[in-house]
Amino acid sequence: MSEGRPCPLCDADGGALVWRGEKLRVIRAQEAGFPAFYRVVWTAHVAEFSDLSAADRSHCMEAVTVVEQCLRQHLAPSKINLAALGNTVPHLHWHVIARFDWDSHFPAPVWAAAQRPGPAQQEAAVRALLPALESALRARLDAALSVA
Length: 148
Hints:
- The chain is an alpha+beta fold.
- It has a single domain, classed as HIT family, subunit A (2-Layer Sandwich).
- It contains three helices and five strands, in the order αβββαββα.
- It has helices spanning 8-11, 54-75, 120-145, and strands spanning 16-20, 24-28, 37-42, 79-83, 93-99.
- A five-stranded antiparallel beta sheet has the order 1-2-3-5-4, with helices on one face.
């Protein structure tokens, strides 16, 4: 990484690995209060989406789309949040976050101040659905991206 600083997304997966392809990986982030917070992480160290070729941009966005579709299908969230900020970690990664109108921050961003305590029972119910979601996600990513 530039300026001699280590890159946490080059040095480690960055969360619970769900799927890994040649060009990117999908991880579930360990973000308290947000059990369905995923990241699509580009393998090579690039800072910006525009650093990718047109084909690689398409490949990356296909992965983001598949993650979003699986979250919607399996969890029926109130909204999906997509973000590619990279201000703290300038390594290309997309946040794909299932949001619920009951979560502690909704409708504000997950990085804003909490508006209410997180409902442990509802968060646990979402976590219980993740194994089936992630199994379907792996199959969909294999089908969509393995040959690309």
